[in-house]
Amino acid sequence: MNTAAMPGGDRSILQRSPLARLPDRALKYGLTALAALILALIVYFFVRLVGEAHPAFAKEGVFGFAFNNDWDVSGEKFGALPLVVGTLITSALALLIGVPVAVATAIYANELCPLRLRSALTVLVELLAAVPSVVYGLWGIFFLAPKLQPIEQWVADRLSFIPFIGGGTVTIPNYFIAGLILAIMILPIVSAISREVMATVPADQKEAALGLGATRWEMIRTAVLPYCRAGIVGGAMLGLGRAIGETIAVTIVIGDAPQLGSHLFGQGYSLAAVIANEFGEAQGLHRSALFAAGLVLFVLTLLVNGIARALVSRASRNATSTPLSAVGPQPIPGAVASA
Fold first, then answer.
1. Quick check: 302 pLDDT over 50?
2. How much is the pLDDT for 79?
3. Distance CA 175, CA 83 (A)
4. Could you give the angle at the alpha carbon of 119 between the alpha carbons of 115 and 122, nearest 5°?
5. What's the pLDDT score for residue 315?
6. Nearest of 291, 252, 100 to residue 172 by alpha carbon
7. What end-to-end distance do the CA atoms of the chain give, in Å?
8. Bridge partners for 12 per DSSP
9. Cα 112–223–311 angle (5° rounding)?
10. Measured at the alpha carbon of residue 43, what is the angle toward residues 37 and 47, in degrees to the nearest 5?
């Protein structure tokens, strides 16, 4: 029987004493215990939230709580639909605005930026993640929102024929400002992940595209982006999870109105914001309803993570099954024959 010899001695792994193999076993069992501890912690959070939220679910029902449009603390009526919708709207706006900017920043930093400026640009983008969320919220409500209000009103008036986007009077704060602030907050995360994934693209693959006559943009579109699709999708989903769970900044700029907004530039509420605003003075059924809102947010985050895993796996399969096609100028018909 062939045995693998260790670099440090003449004995194979199977010939070594059990005491010599003890560190390997300790590492294996230790890492397994840590992984199991993480899973146990997630299960504990879920069970504890279910227990605390039981009175609210018993009164409203699970679907009644999640899909009822009536959050009235004084009347002890708790319907979380406006909170769920506000969370989804602001998170979707953050993705629509932030992900294209983040990916474009990563492309510029990796492929177009001069080498002497690349490090400075990277540091400046990553510094956005160091700004506290309360600073983003205060900047958004006191500076950004008043500056953008005339533009928002112009858009609302011109697009009045589009449901939810146009029409109505712009308020400060509103859904759009909350989504814009979240887009700025997730930009460094998505950009950093996209940039690191783009740095792994083989140089031969990019040079092959350029050698076939592709322009710089065609090389990026056909050689870089398909290779990085899974990483970009994963970064976007990670940013989405960050946007869904953001609390303080959204609390400041969304408006704290527990009702469905009639248009994009109206006030609303989110699951994280209502917990931050009302938990300090909540008692009884109100406290249980806030735990139920936290449970809905927890389940929503798990769903986003599950969808992210599925999208990343699908993008990885598509990237590996799609070959690099020829790009650049097409041959003129008859050119080969005339040559």
1. yes
2. 87
3. 12
4. 120
5. 67
6. 252
7. 63
8. 5
9. 105
10. 140
Predicted confidence at residue 165, as pLDDT, reads 84
Task: Report how far Cα 88 is from the mean position of its chain's Cα atoms.
Answer: 12
| Beta pairing partners, 71 | 78
The owner of tokens 């397994």 is 32
Q: What is the pLDDT of residues 242-255, one digit of tens each?
A: 899 888 999 999 98
Return contacts of 90-93, CB within 8 angstroms, 24+ apart. Answer: 90/175, 90/178, 90/179, 90/182, 90/243, 90/250, 90/254, 90/268, 90/270, 91/179, 91/182, 91/240, 91/243, 91/244, 92/179, 93/175, 93/176, 93/178, 93/179, 93/180, 93/182, 93/183
User: How many Cβ atoms sit within 10 Å of the Cβ of residue 201?
Assistant: 18
Residue closest to 200 by CA, chosen among 231, 178, 172: 231
Helical ranges in the chain per DSSP H:
22-60, 62-67, 81-107, 115-127, 133-139, 145-158, 175-198, 203-211, 216-219, 225-245, 248-253, 271-278, 284-321, 335-338
For the chain, the C-alpha Rg in angstroms (whole number) is: 26
Q: At what angle do helices 225-245 and 284-321 cross, to 10 degrees?
A: 180
Tokens for 277, please give them: 């605003």
Instruction: Tell me if 210 sits within 8 A of 328, measured CB to CB.
Output: no
Rounded to whole angstroms, the Cα distance separating 175 from 94 reads: 11
Percent of the chain with pLDDT over 90: 33
| pLDDT > 70? residue 330 | no
Pairing of strands 71-72, 77-78: antiparallel
Instruction: Please provide residue 77's backbone torsions phi and psi, each rounded to the nearest 5 degrees.
Output: -120, 125
Q: What is the pTM of this model?
A: 0.82
**What's the CA gap between 19 and 7, in Å, rounded?**
18
User: What is the rounded CA–CA span in Å between residue 105 and residue 228?
Assistant: 14
**Average pLDDT, rounded, for the chain:** 84
